[in-house]
Structures are given as structure tokens and as C-alpha cells.
Specification:
Keywords: Membrane, Transmembrane, Transmembrane helix
Transmembrane segments: 35-55, 67-100, 106-126, 133-154, 174-202, 209-228, 260-282, 340-370, 390-420
Shape: elongated
Number of strands: 9
Region (Disordered): 434-454
Strand order of the largest sheet: 3-6-7-8-9
Domain STAS: 460-561
Pfam families: STAS, Sulfate_transp
Largest sheet: 5 strands, mixed
Helix content: 55-70%
Structural class: alpha/beta
Distance between the termini: 44 Å
């Protein structure tokens, strides 16, 4: 019997990784490694944070507030050693729609509420369930977000002048952009292409260089020195503040909370998925293991704090987290230092950001969006199965054409149905009469399991059957039909359930119905090899002696059935 594994304690689930690292012993070498990694990540996060904020319809300073406040708290309280928190491209669509509909105040309220929801999800230990999101859904919605981000950057990338406000939906947006093509600004387009070229060149020949920062600095110098007629951060938003604003609670009146609750739910769902996916990526790169529920609590606290300082939604960022791991980080201190370095930039060099061309930031986000469309993974899923391809396509199309949350929910539901259908088809029922169990370990078709072959005529009054696979509601109909085909006149039925790993109430009800039929026929029912959990489910549905007998294995069950038959024959003779 396998030893039972004790459930993890509260401390094991919710102790931040920072505490774990400090307990293990943190020295000057670790601090130096984390400082180098934190600076590396800050250089990557600096232009990205501003670009994501601008694409989301708010000022660039709000992206920096989010990276500084949210990034510090995610690393300090989080359940991952290497997670880097901050604004993420995946939120651009939702944030832009929220700002357009409810204003910046609505964004702050939704972010704060989302933080409370994420903390509640962590305390309720729901982080474990986020990993059940099917892989085709994550690939589909990530690719869909990438396409939407790319479309949202075309206006600044080409310096277009629209006749009216830019539509939010994709197809009307593309139509409006197409109509504005004659207004292309050659200088803006050239700067955007130059930024993209610099990023691609650095990735190919100097992958360890800060490609985003180099592209932004180079294009800003070019635009300033040549005096190119392009929009910059300064011309559109003014000078970035030198420091953080004073914290303040957003308007949490009942009417506003009710109004923004659906938006907060969307932020919560996407934030949980993104942050835990990022933590999983960090685990695969580092060989460590994150605490999912602790991570959700930290993400929630970070979102609440970000809203207090005027920031946006905070989540784990895969690209910056991967950069942190590759830069040699030892623990969460690197993420905290990355936030400190960003704060130093705001205090010292904020005026320089005014010279950054918006076209260069659009080119930067265009490369981010292109990388979000995981072409190799999409091709693999399309080749894998029609079911995975369908889930991928439905999720992608709904995200692009309708709504992000709808795409995730429908994709998840469709993926779940396909999975249940596959599980139902995997359930096997082998029947026959008379039969004996034999060893077919050399038969590749059975995977080394035992099988059945014709038995001597003496066992004609014993009908044998084996059920293998998860016996749940999806397979209950097929199993019931097979059981109904068993011989109606045997003295005993022997059913081998050793290969049934789980049994739900529908499966147990199916067995109860068969046991009732067997009793009506005057036949005994023997269940062999049932695991403890399966046996408990059967007993709870009234499948118990005297009409049903449990045996440890098939051999004992067949022997008991034979002895009962012989005993019955002797009583008949006397």
C-alpha cells in the first residue's frame, strides 16, 4: 500500500519565495548577480512599459508606475523566484477598451477590484485550476492578442492621419486605416522600420544586447538631430513626471463597482492566466517550482497597489521573466531591484523620454506582437489533431473579432468537451462468455495487460468482463450498453475493475443498475481489483453484499464464483 502524502501546510503554500531565498542564505555574491539581472531587466522594461501604456490609451508614465510599484510587490510577495511583474501586452486590448468606455478612473477602479479578486482566488487556492486551461486556448488567445496589438500600432507606425477617431474593433479599424493610407508619414515609417531592423539585427548577431533600448535611443537621436517631422512622447503627452504620485484610493462607490465588475473579472481571468504561465516558463528554464496560490495573492496585492499610484494592470511578463532567468538572477531581489532602477530613471532622466518617437515605440510593439504569434506552436497544433486545431481556430477568431474573455471561455469549453469525448472513447470494455484471464504481455496492442480467451465449457455459467479507463459520465452509456450484452443466464458475473482509476457518481449509478439486474436474474456479482476510491464510490451507491462481492483480484473472484456454483449444484442434488 502506497504511503499517504500529507497535504501542504498554509505556510508551505503562501510563504513568499523571498523568505525562502533568505532562509537558504543570501550573500554578497547573490546580491551582485541579482543587481546585474535587475539592471538588465530594467533596460528591457523601460521602453516596453511606456510603449504598452501608450498603446493602451494612457500616458507613458502610467506604464512606469505599473512596472515600479507592481514589479516590486510581485517580486517581494510572489511565489516564484524569478517572476517579473509589470504592464503586459496581453492587456492592451482590454485596457484600451476600458479607458475608451469608462475613462482612466474606471481603469483604476477595475484594476483595484481585480487585485482583490486575485487575492481572493489565491486564498481560496484556485491557482491550481488555472493550469487546466488547454494549451490550444493559450496559443490561440496569445496569437489573437498579437494580431490586435499589431493592428493598433499601424497608425503610429506609419504616421497616419485619420478622418475621425480610430475604431476599436479590428475590421472597422483596418477599414479606417486603409482609407488613411494616402496620409502616410515617410519619416515615421522610416523610423519604425529602422527600430524593427535594429531589434532584429541585435537578436541575430548580439542577442545579449538590450535591443529595445538600443532601437529607441538610436531612433530618438536620429529624429532629434535631423529634426524629423514625427510625433514624440513629448509632443503628445508632455514631459514624464520625475517620480511617483501620491497614493490615493479610486472611487469605489457601489454604482461604479457594479458598473466595472465585468471588466475587473476579465482583468482577473487574464491576469491569473498570464502570471501563472509566466511562472511556469520560469520553472522550466530554472528547474525550480513556483507556488501558484502565493503568486496569485502577490499579483492581487500588486494590482491594488498599482491602482493606488495611478498605474495599470499588473501581471507576470514572460519576456522579462525569461530575461531575468537568462541574466543569472538568484532570486526575487532581482525583480525588486529592477523596479528600483526604473524609479531611478524617472528621478534622473525622465525629461529624455520626451524625445522618443512614437513610431519607434510602435515598431517595438510590432515586434512584440509578431513574437506573440507562436507560428511553430500553431503549426504543431494544426498537425496534432483536428480537435486541437478547432479549439485554436475558434479561440483565435473570437479573440480577434469579438471579445478576449469570450474567446477564452468558449475555447476552454470546447477544449473540455473534446477532452471528455477523448476520455470516453478511451474507456474499454472486454466481455465474453465463457472466458479466462490470460497473460498477453507480448501483445503490443494491449500494452502488456492481461486479456481474455475462450475457457473450458465447465465455466460456461460464469460471465467475465473487464472495464478499463476512467469510468465517468461520458463513458457511462457505452459501458452500460456493453454490460447489457452480457449473457442473461449465468450463475455469476465477474467484473474486473482493476484498470479503472476513477469512478464518478454516474459510473457508480450504472454499476448499481447492473447489480440490480443481476440480482433479478438470480446471479451473483463479483467485482475484482477495485481501488479504494472506486470501491468507496460503489459502496456509497448501495453496491454491497449479499448480492455483490468484492475480491482483491480476478483470480480470487473467479475462484469464489466457481465455489459458489459448485455449492449451489450440491444443494440442488440434495
Amino acid at each position: 500500500m502506497k504511503p499517504s502524502v500529507a497535504a501542504p501546510s498554509f505556510a508551505e503554500l503562501f510563504t513568499p519565495k523571498l523568505v525562502t531565498v533568505l532562509r537558504e542564505g543570501y550573500d554578497a555574491r547573490g546580491l551582485k548577480a541579482d543587481a546585474v539581472a535587475g539592471l538588465t531587466v530594467a533596460i528591457v522594461a523601460l521602453p516596453l512599459s511606456m510603449a504598452i501604456a501608450i498603446a493602451s490609451g494612457v500616458g507613458p508614465e502610467r506604464g512606469l508606475y505599473t512596472a515600479i510599484i507592481g514589479g516590486f510587490i510581485v517580486s517581494m510577495l510572489g511565489g516564484s523566484r524569478f517572476q517579473i511583474g509589470g504592464p503586459a501586452g496581453a492587456f492592451i486590448v482590454l485596457i484600451a477598451a476600458t479607458v475608451a468606455r469608462h475613462g482612466v478612473d474606471g481603469l483604476l477602479i477595475a484594476t483595484f477590484l481585480s487585485g482583490l479578486m486575485l487575492m481572493a482566488a489565491g486564498w481560496l487556492r484556485l491557482g491550481t485550476f488555472v493550469k487546466f486551461i488547454p494549451y490550444p486556448v493559450t496559443v490561440g488567445f496569445t496569437a489573437g492578442i498579437g494580431i490586435i496589438i499589431l493592428a493598433s500600432q499601424l497608425k503610429d507606425l506609419m504616421g497616419l492621419t485619420l478622418a475621425g477617431p480610430e475604431p476599436g474593433e479590428l475590421l472597422p479599424k483596418l477599414q479606417a486605416l486603409g482609407a488613411a493610407l494616402p496620409t502616410v508619414n515617410a519619416a515615421a515609417l522610416g523610423l519604425a522600420l529602422a527600430a524593427i531592423a535594429i531589434i532584429l539585427a541585435c537578436r541575430k548577431w548580439r542577442p545579449h544586447w538590450p535591443a529595445y533600448l538600443i532601437a529607441v535611443v538610436a531612433t530618438a537621436l536620429l529624429a532629434t538631430l535631423v529634426n524629423l517631422p514625427v510625433e514624440t512622447i513629448g509632443s503628445r503627452f508632455g514631459e514624464i513626471p520625475r517620480g511617483l504620485p501620491a497614493p490615493g484610493l479610486p472611487d469605489l462607490s457601489l454604482s461604479r463597482v457594479v458598473e466595472l465588475l465585468p471588466t475587473a473579472l476579465s482583468f482577473t481571468l487574464l491576469g491569473a492566466i498570464e502570471s501563472l504561465l509566466s511562472a511556469v516558463v520560469a520553472d522550466s528554464m530554472s528547474g525550480r517550482r513556483h507556488r501558484s496560490n502565493c503568486e496569485l495573492v502577490a499579483q492581487g496585492a500588486a494590482n491594488c497597489a498599482s491602482a493606488l499610484f495611478g498605474g495599470m494592470c499588473v501581471t507576470g511578463t514572460i519576456a522579462r521573466t525569461a530575461t531575468n532567468v537568462r541574466a543569472g538572477a538568484r532570486g526575487p531581489v532581482s525583480g525588486m531591484l529592477h523596479a528600483v532602477f526604473l524609479l531611478v530613471f524617472m528621478l534622473v532622466a525622465a525629461p529624455l523620454a520626451s524625445y522618443i518617437p512614437l513610431a519607434a515605440l510602435a515598431g517595438l510593439l510590432a515586434t512584440v506582437a509578431w513574437n506573440m504569434v507562436e507560428r511553430d506552436h500553431i503549426a504543431t497544433l494544426v498537425r496534432a489533431s483536428r480537435g486541437d486545431a478547432l479549439v485554436l481556430a475558434v479561440t483565435f477568431l473570437l479573440v480577434v473579432l469579438e471579445d478576449l474573455s469570450l474567446g477564452i471561455l468558449v475555447g476552454f469549453s470546447l477544449g473540455t468537451l473534446i477532452f471528455l469525448n477523448r476520455m470516453a472513447q478511451a474507456v474499454e470494455v472486454e466481455t465474453g462468455s465463457p472466458l479466462v484471464e490470460t497473460d498477453r504481455a507480448d501483445d503490443e496492442r494491449t500494452g502488456g495487460r492481461s486479456g481474455y480467451e475462450p475457457a473450458p465449457i465447465a465455466d460456461q455459467d460464469i460471465a467475465l468482463c473487464r472495464i478499463s479507463g476512467a469510468f465517468f459520465f461520458g463513458a457511462a452509456g457505452a459501458v452500460s450498453a456493453m454490460l447489457d450484452r452480457l449473457d442473461e443466464h449465468p450463475r455469476a458475473y465477474v467484473i474486473n475493475m482493476a484498470d479503472v482509476p476513477m469512478l464518478d457518481s454516474t459510473g457508480a449509478a450504472t454499476m448499481e443498475a447492473f447489480a440490480r439486474k443481476a440480482a433479478q436474474r438470480g446471479a451473483a456479482l463479483y467485482i475484482a481489483g477495485a481501488r479504494p476510491a472506486v470501491r468507496r464510490a460503489l459502496l456509497s451507491h448501495g453496491i454491497r453484499p449479499p448480492h455483490v462481492h468484492y475480491r482483491a483480484n480476478m483470480k480470487d473472484a473467479i475462484e469464489a464464483a466457481r465455489l459458489a456454483k459448485v455449492s449451489g449444484e450440491e444443494e440442488t442434488l440434495h
